[in-house]
Each structure stands twice: as C-alpha cells, then as structure tokens.
C-alpha cells in the first residue's frame, strides 16, 4: 500500500489553481432530491488519476488501477472506475453542497447538489381577522411542520400577491403584512410553500374588513329643477358600508322620524320646499357621511291675455295695451312678431312690464303682439293681439299710360296708403268721371287728351289727398317702304334712297344689316331722315337696308332693300406657268373683280384664241413662246381691263448622279457629281430621301454640283439623289446606291474551349466586311480550312493548341485575325444508372450513377427538372451522396423519369432515361358483381386491386382450402350449390403482400326469405374465414 499512501499524500497537498472548473463534465442522476434517496454523479470523461471531493473534502481518491474511499463515506459511497461515476446512498440534508471531480493536471468540474426535506403541514393564521379600513394592519403568518429550502408564494384568490407600497413580506416571505388595509384586502389568502421536490398550499384565511360609509349618493325621482304643487317625489340615498350604516333624514336642519333609505313626498305644496339631507353612520368604523339636495315647489301660471286701454290706435297719437294674468307670475315679456320686444324711443313698459305704451303709435308698429307670463315652473302665452294703426290717406299714386292711340281704352289705377281703405273719385276737366279707384276710359279720340285727377278720402281720420296724370292721344303709323330716286347704283356715282310712310310719324331711322345706320363721309340723311344719299356709292356699301318709321306708341319697318353696286372690271389676274416644256398643254386662268361678272377674251400675237376666262393651249412648240393677253369687259359700266403674261417654251431637262471609277473604300477620299442637261438655278442633295447637310467630312462644291466625302465612313452607305430646281419646276435624279467597302473587322470565333478525345470540335468565324470576307483557318502554322466554318477531325491530346482564323477583303486589301485556344481532355465514355434492389413502396432504395471516364461533378434530373434535395416535398425523402441517390424510403410519389448528368470542362453528359416505377400494394381489394341472381342465370364476379405490378388472383368458396379459380374474373351458374362467401385472394408477385376480400352471394327463390348480403357477411365471416385461413 505504499503507492496508494504516497498518492493520497500528493493529491491532498497538490494545488488545483492551474485548472479551470468546468461544470459541464459532471451531472447528477437527479437534482434536487429528497432526504433518504440515492444519487449517482456521472462524468462525461473517464478519470484515471484524480479525486471526487465534497466541499473541498476528499470522498474518493482515484489512481490507475485502484481507488481509496474516505472512512466517513465508505458505507454510503460506490465508485465505478469504468465510468468514474460516484453513487451516494441514504442522502441527508447535510449532504447538500459542492461536489468536485478533479482530474490531475487535466480538468476540474463542479456540481452543486441540493438534498431537501419534503414539505408537509402548511398552516396559515392571521394576527386578527376583524379589521377597520385605513386604521388596522393585517399580519398573515405561514408555518411549515416539515421541509427545507423553502420558497413562499402568497395568493389572494387566484392572483399572486407582490410587494408594493402597502404590502410587505418578512421572515423570508413567511409573513405577509398589509399596512392600512382596504375593503379590497378581504382575500381569501393562501400561502404556497415549495422547494425543489415538493409543494403544499395552506387552507384559505378570510379577513373581515369594516369600511365606510363612503361614496354617498342621493337620487331623486323624477329629477327636476322645480316641481309643481300636487307632484309626488321619491328621494333615495345609498352609501357603501360594512356593516350596513344607520340612516336618518333632515329637512332644513330638522330631523324627520324616518330611518329608511327612501323618503316619499306625496301631493306636495309650496311648503314642502327646502334642503333635504340624508345622514349615514357606521357603528363599527364610527364614521359619518351625508348627501343633500334642494327641492323647490311652485304653483303654475294659469291665464294670460292682452287688452286695450283708452282710445283707438290712430297714427301719431298715444296708445296703451295691458297684460292681464292669473297665478304666481315672476316675469312678463312682450313678443312682437314672435321675437322679444324691447323698449325704444316710442314704446315703453311700466308696472313690471304689465303695461305697454306707444307714444306715439305709428303705422310701423303694426303687427302681432303677445305677452308671456312665467315662473321657473312654467309659462303661459296670451292669444295673438294684432295691432293695425289707423292712418291716411297718404299721397295717391296713379298707374297708367301717358300716351295712347285713338280708338284704345285706357285703364288708370289710383292707390293711396290708408287704414281703413280710402274712398276714391276721378275727375277730367273738373267733371267726375268715376267713383272707384280704377277708371277705364271710353274709346279715345284726339280731344280726350288732357289732365285726369284722383282724390282719396279716409272716413275715420277725416282726411283727403289728390294726384293727377296727363294723357296724350296719338294716331298710329301704318306703312314704311324704300324706293330708288334717280339712276342705278354705279360705283363712284351719286345714288339716292327714300323712305315713304303713312300715319303720324315722329322719327325715321335707317338700318344696315340689323344695326342702326349713322351718317359718315359718303352717306347723308335729309333733315327728317326721309332720304338717304350715297355720294359717291361704293362697292363697300353693298348690303341689306331697311327704314323704321315710328311714334311713341307704334312703328312700321320696311321690307329689306338689297343694294348691289355695279363696278369693274378691275385689273385682271392671270394664273399659270411662265415656262413649259415642248409637248405640254398649259392652262391659263383669268379673273377680274366685277359686278355683273365680266366677259373674257384671250389674245396671242393680237389674235383671239379663247372667249372664256380659262384658256388651255394646244401641245406646245418652241414658236408658241410669247405674250398671252386677257381682256375683261362689263356690259353695264361699259368698261374693260386687260392683263398679259409671258410664256417660254423649252426642251426637257435630264438629271443623274455620276460617280468616279475607283471603288468607295472606308477612310479614302470620294465624290459624287450631279449632271444636269438644261437650265437650272439650284441643286440640292438627298440621302435616303432626306436632305443631305454639310459637316466636317461632307462638303459641297461648284454650286452644290459636287459632294465630297473626306474621309469616307461606313455610315455614308445609302441612296443618293440630286434635285435640280428652277422657277418652273424641280427634277430629282434616280437613286444612286453608294456602298462603302470596309473591313474586315476583328473576327469573332464561336467554338468550344474544351473538347474530348475521340470527338470533333466545330468553330465558326465571322468578321464584319463589305464585300464579305474570305476566311482561312490555321493550326500550328498550317492551313486547315478555307471556309468560315471549320470542323476538326477526331481529336487527340496533341490537337490541343491555338486555332487561328484570318479574314481578308479583296477590295480593301485588308486582313484581320483572331485566335481560339482549344484544350483536348480525356472523354467521358458513358454514363449509366444502375440499381441493385427492386423499388418497393416504403422501403429504402438506391440509384447509382456509373461514369466511365474522369468527370468534375454529378447532378440528378427528374422529369427533365433539376433535383434539389433541399426543396423536396413533404411526401418525398431522398438524399444525394457522391454518385448515389438514396430514397429513405421510396414511395409512389417518387415515380418518374430520372437521369444522372456527369460534367467535365467540355460539357454535360446525361445518362439514358431511367423510368422509376415503384412497386406497391395491394393497397385495397374490391369485388364487383351481383349479391344475388335468379336460379340458372350466369354470374360473373370481378376482383380488382390497387397494386403495382398487377396482382395474381385466386378464388375460394366458403371454407374450401384450395382455390376454385385463378384470374381476376370468376363465372358460374346461379345454383344452390354455388351459394356462399366468395373470397378473392390478391397477391403482388414483387412485394409478396397478400390481401383478401369476401363477397356473399345468394340465389333468389320466390318464397324464400332473403337475408341482405351485409348481414350474411356478418354471420358467415366468423365461420368461413377462420376455417379458410387456418
């Protein structure tokens, strides 16, 4: 034992400061745990040299091949040297503490173990349960008979109590203190005591808290500001109080002999008015509270009326009204046309608004008056008193005409403002002609012109008033017409019109196009406007004229007179070309302004060639050049006027574009020339039918005859035309196609960078060029092709290298080259999908991609779509590992067409399509056919199963152990011997799964009681199935 003793000494004296405590390396089988139980402390790492310790005291020393257990633990500790675990039996509370596993010079792990006593007999008591709100403090104490490591949670009802201003905890949470309790602290209270292994809740304790009275309210029904005599009033008082408070009632400070919460006042009088108060007293809290309300009772106003005092209301005299009332009246107001009336300069109130005095009364005071008598309980309004002030008559107003026509009847109306209505009389030349306000004259004559007088009289005020009007009687205007006086209206001569009328005409006005005509420099009127003179008349005077003759009561308008002044002809205007080509027909048109229209003649070399305004020549020859004259003649004015035009006949003009012999090459100098045969004044150039403009490269010379391009660019390609223009015509040359030769530009090579041995590579070369380039291919300085497309022979490794394409242009004599690097790699010879097992539903299945040749990567395709394991559907589970596709498991949902694709630098290589058809079933079996049939008829039953591949079918009848028929269909005659249960056995030859289906068949008999097939099945299944399958 020398080595163990020495090791013990070394371990006891060694310092562990060099290691760090790691709690994750040890754990307990249970923690916390009850007294008397066992615990095992496990280590995740096996320790060969070290120690288990408790609160820094060694329990077990561990060394290679042995261990030493401290004597104080020897009877209760088991150490497992294989796992380094430590088992402690019969734990006590004192065994709680820090357990450490020290691995010498390796690690140090710690674990705190808690051994607890189960909780029992939790009780709750209060220092007092009868408390007064805001006065007392509640103290609740929770005690436990047994238990350790206690934790307290207080509950009020089902709510956890937390510390706040008035709620405190002491004794580690065992005591709850509520300072100045309120009515909401009644509980019930419980304490929940727990530790890591148990918990227990005490029985509830309820606090009886006295409070109030508070929140006192008084309710009055009905609720009114003032009540009228004879009403019933109910007063109700309430207050929050525990125990219930005592109530008493007071009115105006005097106690009533009433102790109920309601006070009933019936058929009240004004003496019931006063201050009502209810008082509450709580005998437990010794607190008082009260509520009060003011009740006011009045008698209603019952009658109001308006009466006159003194004389009638005559304007400018004093007039008085009085408001008579019955009942208790506190205020009177007067209303005028439904608005309140206030005193002013002529209207005053006296005797508390009882009397209204008008001093004086005026017609403006007319209207509807009312007086309103009221108190706070009600009001009463008088009937309407309508005031109509007596006045007038004022100055009469006469309505009627001042003029009239002979034979008319005139109505004259007279009105004078007056109350009552005036009495009227009409006078003409001091004689009475009417006793009414309206006077209608007899048919008028000229001698009935004169003054008509109206007199108005008021029989109450005794006043009268008069007014007059003057009436003039006129004869009507009956006719107006316009006539010509003197010669016709020839331009620059004098012309006269006269307006002829009948009747008494006081004025004549002339109208020009529905607007009044006023005199000006050339148009004048006679003194009475009867005659209109144009001196001289002009073409601008043309238009519609009328004259209007009138007096104040009638008028007459003439018919329209349309004036058309004769003039011309003025200087003719000739329209037509000044130049034409031989063989053309030229049209010359002549027009001269004239009224009436002119007569025209055409002359050539003093000979008449036409008698119309338009002259069309014969086909022109050179000798038809010369002066063409037009003469216009007016047969009324007797005047004529001439004009001429010169026509020159020339030979046709030719225009075309000429180009130099040398070809147009990009970057070189080039020009185009416009050749014109015949007279020209201007030349313009067009490119692609749009005007061509000069720029820093394109310049015009020789009056635009030549256009130069210096230097020529590709963009100059297009259709060019030149246009020759003179005063007669413009001629455009045919298009000249300018095609700029350029290139070749740098070739573009399309082809692979990598290709496989044994295969060919195809390269395509293209370079922009006009004309199209010629191509040559080179490999290792040797020509391999003379076309734009080059296809290699079967490749080998020594065919890697640079392939050069050269493009040349025989016109520009330029060449351009490009190089393509080709690397030949080892070929992938084949890609195939293999499987080693049969795909059966719900079993694991694997596809393997076999590649013959080097490759970079493999990916899988399903139904021509990339297969992504991260987006697999819920009913599919598969994973890809190296070159295998694992289905875990394979299901019917995995059916489809699969390919694996191996790729290298030359491209992808897909395997032939692999059709995955998962074998399953049978999932269900069904028998189709009749349940019964008539005797002697032929019966067929068909069995089907959901399965892949198709099942093998066997038929059994009743309990016969051997099959009576194979195949999905069984046919038999309906006889008594063939009645019974037909069982179809379906077996999948691949999955080896077998399912059965039973169908009961009976033969119909006329007098036989038929049992339904489902009942027959229930009866026979217990008998036949057991016999069959045993």
Automatic annotation (TrEMBL):
The keyword Disulfide bond applies. CDD domains: Ig. PROSITE patterns: IG_LIKE. It holds the Pfam family Ig_3. Keywords: Disulfide bond, Glycoprotein, Immunoglobulin domain, Signal. Gene3D superfamilies: Immunoglobulins. Residues 118-202, 213-289, 300-388, 393-472, 476-564, 569-648, 652-732, 744-818, 826-904, 912-1002 form the Ig-like domain. The keyword Cell cycle does not apply. Residues 1-21 form the signal peptide. Transmembrane segments: none annotated. SUPFAM superfamilies: Immunoglobulin (SSF48726). PANTHER family: CARCINOEMBRYONIC ANTIGEN-RELATED CELL ADHESION MOLECULE 5-RELATED, CARCINOEMBRYONIC ANTIGEN-RELATED CELL ADHESION MOLECULE 8. This is Ig-like domain-containing protein. It comes from Dicentrarchus labrax (European seabass). The lineage of its organism: Eukaryota, Metazoa, Chordata, Craniata, Vertebrata.
């Amino acid at each position: 034992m020398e080595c163990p003793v020495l090791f013990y000494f070394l371990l006891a004296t060694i310092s562990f400061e060099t290691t760090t405590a790691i709690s994750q390396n040890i754990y307990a089988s249970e923690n916390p745990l009850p007294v008397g139980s066992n615990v095992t402390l496990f280590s995740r790492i096996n320790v060969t040299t070290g120690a288990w310790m408790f609160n820094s005291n060694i329990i077990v020393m561990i060394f290679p091949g042995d261990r030493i257990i401290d004597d104080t633990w020897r009877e209760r500790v088991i150490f497992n040297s294989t796992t380094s675990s430590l088992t402690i039996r019969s734990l006590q509370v004192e065994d709680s503490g820090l357990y450490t596993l020290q691995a010498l010079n390796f690690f140090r792990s710690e674990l705190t173990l808690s051994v607890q006593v189960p909780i029992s007999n939790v009780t709750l008591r209060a220092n007092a349960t009868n408390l007064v709100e805001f006065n007392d403090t509640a103290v609740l104490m929770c005690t436990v008979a047994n238990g350790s490591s206690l934790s307290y949670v207080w509950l009020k009802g089902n709510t956890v109590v937390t510390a706040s201003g008035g709620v405190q905890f002491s004794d580690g949470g065992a005591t709850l203190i509520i300072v100045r309790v309120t009515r909401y602290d009644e509980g019930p209270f419980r304490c929940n005591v727990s530790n890591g292994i148990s918990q227990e809740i005490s029985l509830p304790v309820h606090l009886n808290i006295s409070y109030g009275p508070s929140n006192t309210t008084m309710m009055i029904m009905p609720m009114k500001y003032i009540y009228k005599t004879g009403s019933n009033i109910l007063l109700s008082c309430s207050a929050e109080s525990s125990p219930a408070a005592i109530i008493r009632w007071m009115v105006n400070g005097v106690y009533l002999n009433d102790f109920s919460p309601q006070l009933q006042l019936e058929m009240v009088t004004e003496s019931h008015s006063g201050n009502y108060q209810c008082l509450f007293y709580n005998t437990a809290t010794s607190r008082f509270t009260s509520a009060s309300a003011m009740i006011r009772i009045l008698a209603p106003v019952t009658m109001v009326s308006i009466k006159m005092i003194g004389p009638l209301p005559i304007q400018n005299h004093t007039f008085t009204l009085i408001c008579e009332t019955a009942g208790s009246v506190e205020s009177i107001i007067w209303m005028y046309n439904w608005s309140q009336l206030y005193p002013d300069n002529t209207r005053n109130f006296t005797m508390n608004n009882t009397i209204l005095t008008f001093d004086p009364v005026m017609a403006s005071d007319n209207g509807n008056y009312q007086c309103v008598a009221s108190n706070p309980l009600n009001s009463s309004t008088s009937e309407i008193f309508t005031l109509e002030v007596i006045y007038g008559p004022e100055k009469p107003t006469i309505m009627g005409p001042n003029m009239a026509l002979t034979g008319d009847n005139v109505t004259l109306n007279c009105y004078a403002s007056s109350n009552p209505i005036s009495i009227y009389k009409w006078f003409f030349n001091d004689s009475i002609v009417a006793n009414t306000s309206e006077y209608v004259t007899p048919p008028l004559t000229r001698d009935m012109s004169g003054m008509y007088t109206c007199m108005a009289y008021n029989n109450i005020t005794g006043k009268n008033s008069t007014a007059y009007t003057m009436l003039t009687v006129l004869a009507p205007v009956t006719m107006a017409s316009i006539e010509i006086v003197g010669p016709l209206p020839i331009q620059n001569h004098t012309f006269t019109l006269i307006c002829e009328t009948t009747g008494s005409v006081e004025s004549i006005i002339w109208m020009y196009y529905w607007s009044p005509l006023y005199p000006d420099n050339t148009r004048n009127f006679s003194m009475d406007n009867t005659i209109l003179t144009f001196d001289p008349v002009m073409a601008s005077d043309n238009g519609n004229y009328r004259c209007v003759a009138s007096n104040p009561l009638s008028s007459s308008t003439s018919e329209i007179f349309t004036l058309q002044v004769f003039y011309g002809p003025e200087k003719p205007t000739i329209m037509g070309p000044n130049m034409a080509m031989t063989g053309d027909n030229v049209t010359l048109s002549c027009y001269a302004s004239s009224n009436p229209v002119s007569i025209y003649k055409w002359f050539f070399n003093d000979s008449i060639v036409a008698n119309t305004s338009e002259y069309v020549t014969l086909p022109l020859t050179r000798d038809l050049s010369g002066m063409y004259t037009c003469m216009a003649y007016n047969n009324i004015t007797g005047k004529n006027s001439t004009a001429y035009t010169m026509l020159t006949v020339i030979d046709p003009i030719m225009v075309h574009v000429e180009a130099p012999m040398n070809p147009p090459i990009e970057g070189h100098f080039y020009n185009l020339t416009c050749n014109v045969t015949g007279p020209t004044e201007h030349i313009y150039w067009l490119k692609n039918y749009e005007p061509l403009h000069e720029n820093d490269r394109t310049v015009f010379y020789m009056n635009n005859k030549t256009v130069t391009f210096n230097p020529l660019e590709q963009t100059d390609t297009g259709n060019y035309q030149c246009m020759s223009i003179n005063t007669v015509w413009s001629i455009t040359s045919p298009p000249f196609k300018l095609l700029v030769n350029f290139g070749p530009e740098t070739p573009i090579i399309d082809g692979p960078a990598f290709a496989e041995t044994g295969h060919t590579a195809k390269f395509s070369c293209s370079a922009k060029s006009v004309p199209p380039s010629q191509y040559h291919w080179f490999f290792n300085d040797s020509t391999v092709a003379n076309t734009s497309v080059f296809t290699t022979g079967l490749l080998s490794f020594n065919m890697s290298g640079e392939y050069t394409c050269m493009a040349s242009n025989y016109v520009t004599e330029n060449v351009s080259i490009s190089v393509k690097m080709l690397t030949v790699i080892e070929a992938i010879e084949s890609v195939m999908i293999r499987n080693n097992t049969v795909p059966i539903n719900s079993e694991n299945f694997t596809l393997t991609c076999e590649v013959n040749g080097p490759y970079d990567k493999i990916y899988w395709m399903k139904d021509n779509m990339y297969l992504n394991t991260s987006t697999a559907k819920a009913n599919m589970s598969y994973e890809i590992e190296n070159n295998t596709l694992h289905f875990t498991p394979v299901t019917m949902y995995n059916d489809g067409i699969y390919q694996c694709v191996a790729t290298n630098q030359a491209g992808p290589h897909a395997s032939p399509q692999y059709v995955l058809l998962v074998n399953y079933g049978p999932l269900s079996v069904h028998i189709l056919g009749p349940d019964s049939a008539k005797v002697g008829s032929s019966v067929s039953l068909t069995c089907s199963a959901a399965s892949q591949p198709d099942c093998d079918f066997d038929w059994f009848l009743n309990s016969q152990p051997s099959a009576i028929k194979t195949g999905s269909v069984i046919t038999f005659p309906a006889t008594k011997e063939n009645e019974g249960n037909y069982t179809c056995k379906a077996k999948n030859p691949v999955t080896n799964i077998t399912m059965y289906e039973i169908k009961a068949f009976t033969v119909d008999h006329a007098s036989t009681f038929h049992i339904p097939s489902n009942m027959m099945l229930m009866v026979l299944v217990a008998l036949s199935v057991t016999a069959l399958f045993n």
